[in-house]
Amino acid sequence: MAQQELLCLKSVSLKYRDIVAVQNLDINVYPGEILGLLGPNGCGKSTTLNAIAGNHELDSGCILLEGQSHTQHPLSYRGQIGFVPQELAFYEELSPYANLSFFGNLYGIQGNILSQRIAEVLNLVRLEDRANIPAFGFSGGMKRRLNLACALIHKPKLLLLDEPTVGLDPPSREAVFSCLHKLREDGCAIVYTTHYIEEVVRLCNRVGFMAQGSLLFHGTLKEFQAQIIKKASINRTNASSPNYIYEGDWDSSQLDQSVLRKNQAEETHSLEQYLIELSEIKAA
Amino acid sequence: MLKQQLNLLWILALKDIQLFLVDKKAAALCFLVPIILASVFGYIFAKPLQNEDLKLPLLIIREDNSPLAIKLENALLKSSKLNAVIASREEAMAKIERRYINIALVIPKDFASQIALKKKVPAIEILHHPSASLESKWAEGVFTEIAFHEAAPELLGFWLPGSASLKLDRPFEVKKKPFPKGIESSKQAYSHSFSGMTMQYLLFWGMDCGLLLLRERRLGIWKRLKAAPIPLPTLLGGKIVATALIALTQIFFTFSFGSLVFGVAINGSIIGFFLMAIATALLSAATGLLVAAIGGTENRARSISILSILSLSILGGLWLPSFLLPLWVQNFSLLLPTTWMIKGFEGVIWQGMGLLDASYCALVTLFFSTIFIGFSILKFQSFDQSSASDGVGPCN
């Protein structure tokens, strides 16, 4: 029996003033899978996430979560979603415990259940030893993990993550990945936006590639590896300063917008790993 | 070295100027707000001197039916410096007690006969609310001028026969009677100050909370809150309740201090005081929300709030008694919530205002709060519908 999709986007289009932000998006997400939305800055990833979260009205199409639309059942729809915006969306003046307590209360969790849930979530994001310290003094990695934790407190069925690893060092990134793996194992569906290909390869079951508001590719990771990565050409443009260009073999008119550029020194390591993985894929 | 430091200083300054100019509407408001404030208040305060429309509201109680008393009454009614109306003593006392008016001038029985008999220096009475000692002096001056102008022969006739004792003093006495009793005018300054300045501070407090809301929108917390299963009115309602509760605590704390240290007391209805405190706290929250809704961004909201709070404070009588303003401004100020706020608050604090009148002032203040909150919710809803993110641009 085919698995029932948890999230379904049907011909979703959104405009910002007269600019098309997202057009004709068709996406399905199933329980226990991670969909990676890949694409360059400004391609419509975050707008798509915000639309799924119910923060934007659609110009056309519909979004269904377990068959319910946001417009018809806004409160029960939102209650099943955990949203992690790109920004640090919690109160830095408060401790992780106080933040989680507040967000838990918003979702109707109280008393012992809340305390228990806070302990679980703090354990999951490895912040249990900082539970009662105000968050403003935390490192970037700890803040990112707390940002994630605030979206997990109510055990959402669908987790929306908007570039959650931006600015994180490798250990902090690993901590986030491990947390997401655990959530996937528990049956949580995740939509994850990023412009790091290696993150998609490591985390996701399925991949969507967006450019200029459109979905250029949508398929499983295997299909992504087969159709996109295998055919990719990797050019090292400058040996002294790492500056990699990845170009897919899709329509050349879309190429300019869908080129992924990585030129930050801190990403060299992961890109090197990616190159190794890629060569292994090719060898296989 | 110095040149390098100066260069760095300039680079830093330039960055701040660039940041200032990023939001062009906010930058424009920064220049416009002081111009608007200076121009409007300059116009308001200059106007009375030019067209002399500053009139003192006054009740005339004529208990003497002599031709002289009638003559003086007519002159008072015609005076361009007064907004005079005839009343009985009972009517006048009731109106002064309820602060519908502050001053009543009594031409007592036998005023003319005392002049004619030359036995006793005649006396007029000025009944005034304890808060209106300044206005009572104003009334005294205007009456003296009118009396000399209209009835010099009758009044000075008292003195003329005995030329040795002739003085150019005023040939009648003025007996001032503060009413109602039991209200110490010495406490007036502190009471007005505690009422006016607390109200003004609370408006700034509300503004600060409005700015905090806009900051939350900018920082992304708003996105998370909106994604939670909470309707927008509830989301904004939470902000209002928090702001209002803290404002309420501030009111009680401030007035407790005023009471203990400066003897500021509640001479009117205590329930009325609590009603006014609740209405005022809610208004401070509603005003902050309104400013945030109109401004849309922190920078714009800051300029708008300075303009609106200063205007509401000055025109509403939080700084100066409203009778010092032109009549048209006094009438206009009835459309401002601060007028009712200060009227109710001062009323119950030290003017002996009863529960009924305090309830009326509180209801009007609550009415303004409701309008402000309703408008703000609509405005925030339209923000969410018209913008892809934060009201400032696409969210990618």
Could you characterize the architecture of this molecule?
The complex is a heterodimer of chains A (284) and B (396). Chain A has a domain at 7-80 and 156-222: Rossmann fold (3-Layer(aba) Sandwich), CATH 3.40.50. Chain A has ten helices and 13 strands. Chain A has helices at 45-52, 74-79, 96-106, 111-124, 140-152, 170-185, 197-203, 221-229, 252-258, 268-283; strands spanning 7-16, 19-29, 34-38, 60-65, 68-69, 81-84, 158-162, 189-194, 206-211, 214-220, 233-236, 244-247, 260-262. In chain A, a hairpin with a 7-residue loop joins β11 and β12. In chain A, α3 (96-106) packs across α4 (111-124), α3 (96-106) runs parallel beside α5 and α5 (140-152) runs parallel beside α6 (170-185). Chain B folds into two domains: 53-181, abc type-2 transporter like fold (3-Layer(aba) Sandwich), CATH 3.40.1710; 186-386, no CATH class. Chain B is α/β, with parallel strands linked by helices and 396 residues long. The two termini of chain B are 43 Å apart. Chain A binds chain B through residues 14, 16, 19, 21, 41-47, 50, 53-57, 74-79, 81, 83, 85-91, 103, 106-107, 150-151, 160, and chain B through 219-221, 223-231, 384-385, 387-389, 393-396.
